[in-house]
Amino acid sequence: MDTIERGLDPTDLSIIEILQQDGRISVSELGRRVGLSQPAASERLKRLEERGVIAGYRAMVDPAAVGLGMMAVIRLRTTHEHIRPYLKQFSEMPEIIEVLRLTGEDCFLLKVLVPTPSDLETIVDSIARHGAVTTSLVLRNEPIKVIGRDLIRKAAAR
């Protein structure tokens, strides 16, 4: 199955890549870059949004610029009975900005932003009540790669 069969043509793939790099681009500039008129680009964009391919637009905030200079990754191993309570707890903790539920030995991988080591200690202590915790400080956070046409084509080929 190729991308055309999934309803994504090369122009759609270009739009997806461009928007991941610059979500504030004007529709007319987007159209210019992909060789479409503004109305045609607008219609493509609307279709991608309606299909859920483009799930939203967000500002990228520099954590250090707002006083959150410490990032950590916390791995948690717990029992199945604590999964739902932990999910609820994580949703109520603004410091936890990403939650990944895992297979294997660890149950969760959490991405945490805090201003100080003592704030991180508070987070770790509150999480460690029902399971083993491993914490790693992030030295540098590399930019997130875009979901590009090569990856989309690979997925479509399966």
From TrEMBL:
**Taking every annotated instance into account, which residue ranges of this chain make up the domain HTH asnC-type?**
8-69
Q: Name one GO cellular component term.
A: cytosol
Keyword list (alphabetical) reads: DNA-binding, Transcription, Transcription regulation
Q: Does the keyword Repressor apply?
A: no
| A molecular function (GO) term | DNA-binding transcription factor activity
GO BP field: response to amino acid
Protein name, UniProt field:
Lrp/AsnC family leucine-responsive transcriptional regulator
Native source organism of the sequence = Rhizobium tropici
